[in-house]
């Protein structure tokens, strides 16, 4: 879609009503959304969707910024799979720009990957962010000249942000059917604003002061089990959506942050397929009020 003809700098859409970064307009996105980190994962899971109109293909649109939206039906229920890429800013684009073009109440589930911090999350586990997620942020105010002492903590920890209880439980239930109960667990997710500094990875190239970060995290949040980069943003926006978005997240533990072991590519793909179908089923079984929202009560 063209990016010309933008008429509103506050919430930019083009002349057709297409959003500025995702490029979709009303009618192209379902109110049940599966958000995934990579195009490969999205295309693999799109194999489980049927076209909205029999005989036609799935709706697919990739924006100039690389956000791919795929819309079809899962066992008859309209559903979109959206490539969110990585990090909180991209999660923010996906939630806000979809909210702007979707009618009614929404349900958004994230299927991601993560590092496992401690049991019950283990390499290969599917871990649902239930009761929710907290946020780890690197604080630039702590970093002066190298070697300079600062009494500002280099990282801040937010309070936990809740996930939607019913949707999280549906996700665990569906995942247990497909992965077996031993393959699924739940716990508090930690969402970091970097893959490196605020996840406790260190190199000699940067002054990150993160040597004790993971120990500090577990001291503050002994129940934290997973570490990744988007869930807290999704849950925070859902919490602030004036009741219009229900959100949950499940992540596959790809890395063990204690042993530094990594899951193989074949096993990862198997788990993505199974966990992805669990997410699709949980979304499809969620009751939503399609008549909710400003477009149905006369106001704008
Ligand atoms: C980092 O490698 C990426 O993988 C994890 C992190 O949250 C981050 O986005 O999730 P996805 O596999 O969903 O991208």
What tags apply to this protein structure?
6 helices; 300 residues; five-stranded mixed β-barrel; globular; Rossmann fold; alpha/beta; single chain; binds 1-O-phosphono-alpha-D-ribofuranose
Main sheet summary: 5 strands, mixed, barrel
Mean pLDDT: 94
CATH superfamily: Nucleoside phosphorylase domain
Based on Cα principal axes, name the global outline: globular
| Sheet with the most strands: spatial strand order | 5-10-9-6-11
Q: What name does the CATH topology carry? A: Rossmann fold
Query: Which residues form runs of ≥5 with pLDDT under 50?
Result: 295-300
Into which percent range does the helicity of residues fall?
10-25%
Number of domains: 1
**CA-CA gap between termini:** 25 Å
CATH class: Alpha Beta
Count of helical segments? Answer: 6
Classify the secondary structure makeup into a structural class: alpha/beta
Any overview of this molecule?
This protein is α/β, with parallel strands linked by helices and 300 residues long. The protein has a single domain, classed as Nucleoside phosphorylase domain (Rossmann fold). Helix content is 25%, strand content 26%. It is built from 6 helices and 11 strands. Strands 5-10-9-6-11 form a 5-stranded mixed barrel. Helix 2 (88-101) packs parallel to helix 5 and helix 3 packs across helix 6 (265-284). The longest helix has 20 residues, at 265-284. The radius of gyration is 20 Å and the shape is globular. The protein starts with 31 loop residues before the first strand and ends in a 16-residue tail after the last helix. Mean pLDDT is 94; it is low at 295-300.
